[in-house]
Amino acid sequence: MKKLAGTCIFLLLLVFIPFAQKKHSFSLSSNDFLLDGKSFQFISGEMHPARIPKEYWRHRIQMAKAMGCNTIAAYIFWNYHETKRGVFDFKSENRDIASFIKICQQEGMWVLIRPGPYVCAEWDFGGLPAYLLKIPDLKIRCMDTRYMNAVTVYINHLAKEIAPLQFTRGGPILMVQLENEYGSFGNDKQYLAELKRLWLKNGITVPFYTADGPTPFMLEAGTVEGAAIGLDSGSSDADFEFAKKKYPNVPSFSSETYPGWLTHWGEKWARPDTNDLKKEIEFLLKNKKSFNLYVIHGGTNFGFTAGANAFSPTQYQPDITSYDYDAPVNEQGRPTPKYFMIRNLVSKYVNYTIPEPPAPIPAIEIPPIQMRATNSIWHHLPSPIYSPQPKPMEAFDQNQGLILYRTRLIGHKGGKLTITEPHDYALVFLNHKFIDTVFRNGGKWSIDLPKPGDIVNDPVLEILVEGMGHINFAQYMIDRKGITDRVTLNGMTLMNWEIFPLQMDYGFVEEAARPSAGWVDDKQGVFFEGHFDLSATGDTYFDMSNYSKGMVYVNGHNLGRYWSIGPQQRLYCPASWLKKGNNEIIVFDLHQLKEAMISGKTTLE
């Protein structure tokens, strides 16, 4: 019996040990990637664990495999794992990076890790932690000692999660990227070399790669000796020929081939041409070029994780909450026509069997929910912090949310009010009455402040500011939130401010949204609450088209921002955040005073 039991245990182990736990070799030749000594073309689909509910990780990986991919690329967002300085989280919710990588392995997929420290990705501050912005003269992505000390701590912690999962130790990780598109930002080669040294010191032994635009100056500034050359994107013979001529000893690949594109608030939905994509992928397949589709599935910028773009000092383009990206697998995990086009194309060139896609995740409609206005943010302000001049959120260890500035007008009582600079969306009140909004984009930061009828007493000026995402790309990433310098009235600098940081985390929102006696809905900044019953759960999109601008919380989860300027009017809610029976929805709206219905839809549009 003992012998039989031992045999059974051995057979069970054989069943449950994934194929890739056998150690493989992977290396770079001058022309190719070599897996077990043979030329290997990876066809990678990128997705980001932080943008996908953990319950759906396996489904999305299976979707990538069923499109013909043999590899998954994944950004890791530093600020998603170190939300407070020195406190790291690699376990809660969808932060368990090691589990994500292990699921990839179980599904027979190789992995490319993109750990930053800077990643871009249309993610808040490009993945860098906002606590760095508390340093007044901070310089990022270079050998600034303060920055590098934080980077070192991050790499020390992350390496413990990913080092055991390298192919050299039986795992699926083939390569690790150094920084990201550095040639678009700076030219500190010492910085890049130091990143490589830190990873090596922490036990990362797989090959490295870089990713840069296929132009001479970007590649010269962004590459690292001995690392594979990623091209964002590599789409022509000329791109690859230049890389080969410049870097003859390592292979190159298309590290970001774009099947979709990002969308900002106020724009039309990005819908790149599918015919151009087909030609580009066919070129890569025909010429046996490895490539990574950025992204195969985008997911969602839940909460306050969406970033922003800016290419001039007065430009500001915040990203929408959805990261659907017009990707082959849409935000809810469904295949699009683009998905099947790529699947059919890949099947003509690969020598392995492509499985059928997994069953879709059910989606449900929710009948209109009766909402009611329950309270105002003005009735739940924390104790004020005094400051001679306004300070940004980061000075108070706040990342995003809202921040209120209050002072009294002494001297000038009305005239031209200028906020320098409003980051990012401000509501101005005089004697508790709403006057106007100031949006950062475009540099028009002045409004006309009327003189109050009674000027015997010093009128109260209040400025409520919403941070809408730290800039994540290019030269203007030092992007603190709130009021970053001063406020003037007819050129006079206004002094002596009370400041109220408002994190807008669920704990605060739940308390502030409770009905209380004595409040009236005559001042912008109102909470609305509703309840709805479900007999069965499923994914849904909450339609916010009857509201103006704000944020939505369902059963304690922050779904993200909405804004009536569009294009996004519906916010994705995964089934795992809903429950059978009674569910709660809380809305905070910056402008709306009266309640309106909210319903659940099955699609983004």
Topology overview:
Blueprint: H1 2-16, E1 26-28, E2 33-35, E3 38-40, E4 43-46, H2 57-66, E5 71-75, H3 78-81, H4 97-106, E6 110-114, H5 145-162, E7 173-177, H6 189-201, E8 208-212, H7 216-222, E9 228-231, H8 237-246, E10 252-257, H9 274-286, E11 291-293, E12 308-309, E13 317-318, H10 337-347, E14 366-369, E15 372-376, E16 385-387, E17 401-408, E18 415-423, E19 425-430, E20 433-439, E21 446-449, E22 460-467, E23 482-489, E24 492-493, E25 497-502, H11 506-512, E26 526-534, E27 540-543, E28 549-554, E29 557-563, E30 570-573, E31 581-589, E32 598-601
Parallel strand pairs: 4-5, 4-11, 5-6, 6-7, 7-8, 8-9, 9-10, 10-11
Antiparallel strand pairs: 1-2, 2-3, 12-13, 14-32, 15-26, 16-25, 17-22, 17-25, 18-21, 18-23, 19-20, 19-22, 23-24, 26-31, 27-30, 27-32, 28-29, 28-31
Helix pairs in contact: 9-10
Description:
With 605 residues, the protein is of the alpha+beta class. The protein has three domains: 41-347, Glycosidases (TIM Barrel); 366-374 and 505-601, Jelly Rolls, CATH 2.60.120.260; 389-495, Sandwich (Jelly Rolls), CATH 2.60.120.260. Helices cover 20% and strands 27% of the residues. It has eleven helices and 32 strands. The strands form seven sheets. Strands 4-5-6-7-8-9-10-11 form an eight-stranded parallel β-barrel, surrounded by five helices. Strands 16-25-17-22-19-20 form a six-stranded antiparallel sheet, with no helix packed on it. Strands 15-26-31-28-29 form a five-stranded antiparallel sheet, covered by helices on one side. A hairpin with a 2-residue loop joins strand 23 (482-489) and strand 24. Helix 9 runs parallel beside helix 10. The longest helix is centred in the N-terminal third of the chain and has 18 residues, at 145-162. It is globular. It starts with a helix and ends with a strand. 48% of the residues are buried.
